[in-house]
Write a structure and sequence with these properties.
Helix content: 40-55%
CATH class of one domain: Alpha Beta
Number of helices: 5
Number of strands: 3
Oligomer: single chain
CATH architecture of one domain: 2-Layer Sandwich
Strand order of the largest sheet: 1-2-3
CATH topology of one domain: Double Stranded RNA Binding Domain
Order of helices and strands: HEHEHEHH
Structural class: alpha+beta
Shape: elongated
Length: 133
Amino acid sequence: MDKEKLVSELQFKAVRSSGAGGQNVNKVASKVVLQFDLKNSAAFSAEEKELVLGKLENKLTKEGVLILNCDEDRSQLRNKEIVIKRFLLIIEGALKVQKLRKPTKIPRSVIERRLKEKRSQSDIKQSRRKPKF
């Protein structure tokens, strides 16, 4: 994965932020919307693209576009930096291949200890019952 190539394919749009903030919110377009077309990206190989598409299928639109927003800061430039950093973290996380879990065998001593504990618990409960004549 080439980060420079990836960042060059990003599309940014500046829009007005929502919420409280007074005149700054009403006048300045500080919210940054990042769009990345994953299906038409040349930054990934075919295998990488399939892996990312599979892991990010809930975050993609029907056309295969990833959309991220950031309106945390008053500065448009700072919001752009934050959203790029967030995007790179998401892509790196999606490209990680999870190790296969090796199922382990339960040790015999653990099984025996569990059965012994069950027997002793059973004996305790048996002793609480009324005797049968």
